[in-house]
């Protein structure tokens, strides 16, 4: 099961630098001109989780395997992208394929890096990108609504439900609000995904600041944080330049010392990854044994049989039970055997709702 976040923003805001640092590679060309990223680049990055190391130590695991998120570097949008300006149509199509959007906004001043609007204003930039996404959604819905109306008049129940959602989304967009601002029921949230609307995706703002502001942020990033709070989402402050430097360190001690010299306890990328994980409403469960300790990703609310299927389809198909220990009990009891001895291991059925941090062993028969 893959989950991915698309990195978007205007040209020259630091998207590709951020992506390169995230993946510790030079897959995406970072250059001081628009459209240096022509095709979307995809990188898988480990989700930092100290619990996995603790579990591996207690289970005496020979191998540690973290869970991953995918990040997609999408080339810069410009004003008019919804009408095909720049490489707009291609970029908008790429955004439709992602589960969530990480919107990088430039919050640093630099005469060495040009800005397409010739001035620094992150709120204006955020509005530009959001407007283009809303215009693209409006165009998409207006072209499809007539066909849905025809099917709905013919008595097609699915089309009737879809038409109601389309009408609601159109009204919201015409009011200048993204579709994600709608307060939808769970069935509506599931149904609206089929419309593949750009502004229905959850969104995280990443404020790219100068090196001196990496620990505290600056006036620009604080304005973005206010916007994020008003929209019910989050913002993360990073310095892409620092992250690019950190990515070059192979020794963890050197990395920590470098970060400490800048007043940082961890990389901004670690915060971005965790925020992306929250943005997608994901949780982690673990499996552990002498061979390996591994973290796995499921959406919040997933049932035990679904979690088993993440490991292997046979586990879900032949599911019998899930022997489950909470992370806190696993640690307090010194591992699996201690949890068994203390009566802290539970036998859970296929409809058990997996909790974040569960350590699970699936029994199955096919």
In brief:
The protein is an alpha/beta fold and 366 residues long. The protein has helices spanning 15-23, 50-59, 88-95, 122-153, 157-174, 186-193, 219-230, 240-246, 252-261, 268-279, 304-311, 313-317, 327-332, 336-341, and strands at 4-8, 41-46, 63-65, 68-73, 100-106, 203-208, 235-238, 282-288, 292-299, 319-325, 346-348, 359-364.
Walk me through this protein's architecture.
The chain has 366 residues and is α/β, with parallel strands linked by helices. 41% of the residues lie in helices and 19% in strands. It contains 14 helices and 12 strands. The strands form 3 sheets. Strands 2-4-1-5-6-7 form a 6-stranded mixed β-sheet, sandwiched between helices. A 3-stranded mixed β-sheet has the order 3-9-8, with helices on both faces. Helix 7 links the parallel strand 6 and strand 7. Helix 4 packs antiparallel against helix 5. The protein starts with a strand and ends with a strand.
Give a topology summary.
Layout: E1 4-8, H1 15-23, E2 41-46, H2 50-59, E3 63-65, E4 68-73, H3 88-95, E5 100-106, H4 122-153, H5 157-174, H6 186-193, E6 203-208, H7 219-230, E7 235-238, H8 240-246, H9 252-261, H10 268-279, E8 282-288, E9 292-299, H11 304-311, H12 313-317, E10 319-325, H13 327-332, H14 336-341, E11 346-348, E12 359-364
Parallel strand pairs: 1-4, 1-5, 3-9, 5-6, 6-7
Antiparallel strand pairs: 2-4, 8-9, 10-11, 10-12
Helix pairs in contact: 1-8, 4-5
């Amino acid at each position: 099961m893959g989950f991915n976040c698309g990195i978007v923003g205007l040209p020259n805001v630091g998207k590709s630098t951020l992506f390169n640092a995230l993946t510790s590679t030079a897959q995406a060309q970072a250059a001081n001109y628009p459209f240096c990223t022509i095709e979307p680049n995809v990188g898988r990055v480990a989700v930092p989780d100290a619990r996995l190391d603790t579990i591996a130590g207690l289970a005496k695991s020979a191998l540690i395997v973290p869970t991953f998120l995918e990040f997609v570097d999408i080339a810069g949008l410009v004003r008019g992208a919804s009408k095909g300006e720049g490489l707009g149509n291609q970029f908008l199509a790429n955004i439709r394929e992602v589960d969530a959007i990480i919107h990088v906004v430039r919050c640093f001043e630099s005469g060495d890096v040009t800005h397409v609007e010739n001035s620094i204003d992150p709120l204006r930039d955020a509005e530009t990108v959001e407007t283009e996404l809303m215009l693209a959604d409006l165009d998409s819905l207006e072209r499809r609504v007539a066909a849905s109306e025809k099917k709905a008049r013919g008595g097609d129940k699915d089309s009737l439900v879809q038409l109601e959602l389309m009408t609601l989304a159109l009204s919201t967009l015409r009011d200048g609000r993204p579709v994600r601002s709608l307060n939808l029921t769970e069935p509506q949230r599931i149904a609206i995904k089929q419309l593949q609307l750009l502004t229905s995706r959850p969104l995280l703002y990443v404020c790219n600041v100068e090196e001196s502001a990496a620990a505290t942020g600056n006036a620009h990033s604080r304005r973005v944080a206010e916007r994020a709070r008003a929209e019910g989402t989050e913002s993360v402050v990073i310095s892409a330049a620092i992250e690019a430097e950190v990515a070059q360190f192979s020794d963890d001690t050197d990395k920590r010392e470098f970060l400490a010299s800048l007043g940082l306890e961890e990389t901004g990328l670690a915060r971005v990854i965790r925020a992306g994980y929250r943005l997608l409403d994901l949780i982690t469960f673990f499996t552990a044994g002498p061979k390996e300790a591994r973290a796995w990703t499921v959406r919040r609310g997933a049932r035990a049989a679904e979690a088993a299927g993440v490991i292997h389809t046979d586990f879900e198909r032949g599911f019998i039970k899930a022997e489950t220990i909470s992370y806190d009990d696993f640690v307090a009891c010194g591992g699996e055997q201690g949890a068994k001895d203390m009566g802290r291991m539970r036998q859970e059925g296929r409809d058990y709702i997996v909790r974040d941090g569960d350590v699970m062993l699936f029994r199955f028969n096919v």
